[in-house]
Amino acid sequence: MTETMADTNRDPTKLRRAITGWLLFLFILGDVLGAGIYALMGVLAGDVGGMLWAPIMLALGLALLTAGSYAELVTKYPKAGGAAVFVERAFQKPIVSFLIGFSMLAAGVTSAAGLTLAFAGDYLSVFIDIPPIITALLFLAAIGVLNARGIRESLRANVVMTIIEVSGLVLVVAVVGLFVGGGGGDASRLTALPEGSAPALAILAAAIVAFYSFVGFEVSANVAEEIRDPSRTYPRALFGALIAAGVMYLLVALASGIALPAEELADTSAPCWPSLSRPAREYRPGPSVWSP
């Protein structure tokens, strides 16, 4: 196996190996982190009450197991293509590799389209009144130009976006810290399960849902051929980013469990914490969270 890895790492490539360990770390971290963690807290609260930290830790463990497989495959076959390359090596059938690659491409296009429309309609329209379709097309064009310019430029832009994502999560934790420091919240909620629930089954059910908050790291396999010294850099960046994301999610889970009762969290599908910011008013899901 060592000889195979060494031979693979010496394979010639026309791609520029411009991705350093830190750029890869932030790339994976940015793919994993997302605003969906806020809504996830409400879903988990319905299963485990205030013990939000338990399914997050279990889901992190499951994600690390999956990441171990990717780390092994990428270090052995550091080629652009990710899962399509792995399937081709396993089955030696081009049609199977094509179907896997096409499915991943379709999933990427669909998710990009959905996120772009959400950005243009639900978020940007709050500040600027522009037709969502026009905004989405301009946004996709800008992203396309950035990616066509080169991997280094696109990853540098990703660094900025990742810092913004992390800053939002840190802000939430900091606000709850101030709230608890002022005498608010209740730490005893962190061990409270819904009445009549079986602890093991409840945590396992919630962990299955929480696992999806850690997906996204598999995309990093597609840039394996552009990583400097992938056999050393990739595993370190992958596991480091997953653990960092797990720590951030765990802190958000602890903050959520302390700040609000499980019943309020379970009824919330957006990042709004009425007891921390303003008196509770009528909740309305959608782009505008609070109604007057």
How would you characterize this protein structure?
By secondary structure, the protein is mainly α. 67% of the residues lie in helices and 0% in strands. It contains twelve helices and no strands. The protein has helices spanning 2-9, 21-32, 36-48, 53-76, 83-91, 94-123, 132-149, 151-181, 199-210, 230-259, 262-266, 274-277. Helix 8 (151-181) runs parallel beside helix 10. The radius of gyration is 21 Å and the shape is globular.
Key structural traits:
292 residues; mainly alpha; 67% helix; disordered N terminus; disordered C terminus
What portion of residues is helical? 55-70%
Distance between the termini: 64 Å
> How many E strands?
0
Number of helices: 12
Mean of pLDDT: 80
Radius of gyration: 21 Å
The biggest sheet amounts to:
none
Order of SSEs: HHHHHHHHHHHH
Strand content: under 5%
What structural category arises from helix and sheet content? mainly alpha
Overall shape: globular
Which stretches are poorly predicted, pLDDT < 50 over at least 5 residues? Answer: 1-10, 271-292
